[in-house]
Predict the structure.
Amino acid sequence: MSAALDETERAESIRMIRDSAAAVAPPGGDLKRVRSLRFQDPGFDPGLVRQMGEMGWIGLRVPEAQGGAGLGMGEMCALAEEMGAALVPEPLIPCALSAGLLAALGGAGPLAHLLAGEMVVLTAWQERADTLEVPGNPDAPRKFLPMAAGADMFLLPVREGGRIALYEQLAARADVTIERTQDGGNLGTLRPNPGDAKRLADDVGEALAQALDEAALVTGAYLLGGMERAFAMTLDYLRTRSQFGKIIGTFQALQHRAADLKMQIALTRASIEAAAATLDAGATGDARRAAVSRAKARAAEASMLVTRQCIQLHGGIGYTDDYDVGLYLRKAMVLANQYGSATLHRRRFMAVAPETEE
Amino acid sequence: MSAVTIPAPAELDSLDDEDFRLVVRRFLAENYPEELRNPPKRLHWSENQGWYFKLAEKGWLCPGWPKEHGGLGLSPTKQIILTEEYERHGVARTNDHGIVMLGPLVIKYGTEEQKQRFLPKILTGEHIWCQGYSEPNAGSDLAALRTEAVLDGDHYVVNGQKTWTTLATDANWIFLLVRTDKNAKKQEGISFLLVDMQTPGITVRPIINLEMHDEFCEVFFDNVRVPKENLVGQLNKGWDMAKALLGFERIFIGSPRQSAYALSRLKILAERMGVWEDLEFQDRYARLRLELEDLKALYGVYVSKLKRGESLGPDVSMLKIIQTELFQSITDTMLEVGGENAGLLEPMEGNRDLNIGGLYIQARPATIYGGSNEIQRNILSKNVLGLPG
């Protein structure tokens, strides 16, 4: 249904999603809550995940018939952007990935609990760093599971012959090790126990590929929200900080650097929004992959550039943990490479995007 | 495509946008001289007048002018489509300062007498205009201009010098920004004056640029007497008028076309040089290509704004910066990939697609003209980001 929206309806729908995001990420709100959850277990607030479920966010992309909101990538990206601006640590993106996967399988397994925010369900697809490939080796440790310290269940893709089957495994009995991340969250490694896993579906290859693409794009949107907010903080600083008897924002060297960051943010927004529109128009296969890779490559690189320059433009104060701008850099360090680094996505773009005629 | 018929000029604006695009394609296929496609240099009047007269004959010369003045009265969206198709077909620019700059200004600010006197002669090609804005000491800081017009009876007496006057050797009229009040704040003492180039006291001297082309000129004014009815709009309001004319057309300076053309030539060159498969080259090429794709998306954002009837803010400066710097990065890469061939004065192997040095040189002024990229960054930081000073 989402593809049927016209431009005006889509803009209105996106505006409503942004408004509703204020429930979790109030505009101008501080980062006290985010700070209090840092470097603790599980690194996020399960109560807030339930709230996200109640608001329909986890199933934003899931068809209405399966209990979701049936909205498009335009809305999902707008929501993620608002989350990124407020550095919301709850694992909305990995949960939405699992929800998309289960919905594609006809609503298998824990979908209802996941949509309600009652269970954090993570898809344990990744076997090595910086990849979008799902080898599905039955015994291979599954790595880089975001916020695994608070997971209730894992979805386990396993190669069987030429296909990828899907299993579920309860987190409570699973062998998981946790490593903390720069942003105060954590990444888990799951050593699968096939004996304890329940089979959900026979063939999830294409559904998983699509869900991973969507997660990559939505992560780009989260990064966009973060860099916008960090940049806004930096502009405020440039407008007020005084040195040599002058507001430092009057210095042309700093003005031009700010202009350059603004352009990177504008390109990121254009790229993300174009990719979301491409997916909402029904793109599949290489067209989908090209659009996503373009946007994620841009978002990853721009977010690192913008956040590190924001530190530099703040000077010493930017290097203190007390000052919020550093939180944006640390978040970008974790998310820039999640669901594929800029390099991976540039390569994939070149492999799948046809050259345009000139 | 053969099914497309070209309607009368007055009906073009009522076409559906996509039909209009097809009509433009057909029009170009039927009317544009093949030998003038993608010229490596800006053409002189002697070379492009055939096309100018063809456009005039078909009634297509002035897409943005209202119909009552002989234009096509096209919406911004259709003007963008027209420009996209011209660029796609490799259509050369004509001597278009009368069409693009002077005509709209006279239509907006001129007297009825001035409209009657000047507009028809642009439409027939009798008057070919050039633009006298920049001066040796008024480039980026245009408002510092000093060419002076002093009223003496029924005439203004003009003294001073203009420079970077594009195709002045081809023009028989020039529109000038002149200083008419030396005591006012610099933007508030400037007026807009129309001058017949045959008037005694005018000297035009071509400047050879890095393309070895005489596109630019210096124009000297030595006691040039200009009838006072040639002043357009109010005295001392020339700056505001010239600025107000910077409308949605500013989007064109950020059109991705130039970079798209250059990138396609980089690919041809890389294949010819045998480095296309090279991994390091592929990485560089991928970056350039993604920059182009995202520029296209950003350009699309501004086109959509125009389609919704919104006007463009100062943030459109971003397009100009991104486009021109990408164009330069692409030609930088060509220079490196081409090896010794990059130093050749003529295209490599006589192939216009392998015009390495030529394209490299052509890319240089892009970051200077239309407000240098440094000025554009000043605009961004002050008018978009709200930084002080």
Remarks:
- Residues 205-240 of chain A form the longest helix (36 residues).
